Amino acid sequence: MKTNKAMSELLLRTSPSGTIVDDEYTHFVEWNDCILISSFARDLPMSLDKTIYSDRTECEASINHLHLENLSIALDIIYEWKKSLISNYPEKSFIIVVSCDVDGSEAVIRFYLSRTDEPSWLNENNLENYKHEAILFLKVSQKH
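Predicted structure:
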């Protein structure tokens, strides 16, 4: 796991909320070599080239995202995502990204497959460049 300084400070004083995560956010479907949250993956065309997305990573990062009230709830859901993604796709590696305001409010979480043939949605080596938000970058796989 990598974080910027703002997220590191938030994590010291923030814990998961204990909210029960709705199953609709932890069921996934495969489409065109993408792993998508099934309830968000409706009415997709037959292929990626018929979408607005430039590549599969962008498609996943865009579709597989949730806007949440705060970081505590985000921590609950990313824990469930991690368990479910590893269980359902043990041979794959994923990236989970959490961003929120520096006070822990207005969290956005998303995930996408880690691919060597496409650029990452977020450059994990430049997290401190995000001055006005807290960022968490988590690599998830059977090996981690």
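Summary: The beta strands are 2-3, 28-31, 34-37, 65-70, 94-100, 105-113, 134-140.
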